[in-house]
Description:
This protein is 21% helix and 25% strand. By secondary structure, it is α+β, with helices and mostly antiparallel strands. The protein has a single domain (14-270), classed as Deoxyribonuclease I, Chain A. The strands form two sheets. Strands 3-4-2-1-12-11 form a six-stranded mixed β-sheet. Helix 3 (130-151) runs parallel beside helix 4 (185-196). The longest helix has 22 residues, at 130-151. The two termini are 33 Å apart. 46% of the residues are buried.
Amino acid sequence: MVRATRTSRPKHDTLKLATFNVNDVVKRLPNVVRWLVDREPDIVCLQELKCENVRFPDEAFRDIGYSSVWNGQRTWNGVAILSKGSEPVLTRTALPGDPDDVQARYVEAAAKGILVASIYLPNGNPAPGPKFDYKIQWFERLIGHATTLQREGVPVVLAGDFNVVPTDADIYPTTSFDGNALLRPESREAFSRVLGGGWTDAIRFLHPSEPMFTFWSYLRNRWARDAGLRLDHLLLNDIIRPRLMEAGVDRNVRGETAASDHAPAWIILRRE
C-alpha cells in the first residue's frame, strides 16, 4: 500500500499544487485548515463547497496566508482556488459553451505564473438518463475548452474531481460499481479524449502501477477496507509537464474525524 509522506523541499525552487474535494467547506473547515497548515501547498483547488458565495470562509483562509477566488452554490457543487502569499487573478467562473448552465462546477485563475482550473465534473448517476447526458455534454465542453487552453501557449493545470475512474486499475476489485456513471465507457472515453489533447495525468504518470485512490465512500466500511477509487486528477499541458517532480495523495486526511470522503491529491513542480 502506497502512502504519501511529508516531502522536504526547497520552497524557493519548487511549487506544490493540490486538489481536494472537501464535501462541504464550512462543515470541514477545521480539517481543511489543519491540512493547509500542515502541508503548506502553494496553490489549492477545492471542490464540492456546498455553500453560497457569501458563506465561503475567505477570512479563515486569509488568516493562514491564503487568498481565494470561488464560485459557490447552495446545497451542492461549488469550486475555489487558493493561493498562498499572493492573490489569484480570476479568469473564469464557468466553463464556456452553455450560457444556460448555472451549476457551479468550474473556476479558473492565474496564480504564481500558472493558469489553474478547479473542476467538479458532474457525477452523472443514474445512468443512463438526463444526469448522465449532462455529464457527457459537460465533458464535451471541457474537451473544447482544454483545446483552447492548449493554444494559449502558457502553463496550465486542470485539477479537480473529474468523477471518472479512468481504468480498472483505479478502483478496488469489485462489481459494486458495474453500470455506474463513474466507470461507464462513455465517461472513460471522454477522459481519454482529454488526455489525447496533449494533457498528462500527473499522478498516473509518476505512479504507473500503484492504485493511488483519492475517494472512499462512507458506505460499507470502505475506508477501513481500503475500498477506494481514483476520481481526483491533476492534468498538465505539455508546457508545464517537464516541470513535474513529485506527486502523491494525502491519504491520512481521509481517516480524520469528520473527514471528507476524498483525500487531497498533489503535485510538486519545479519553479521557472
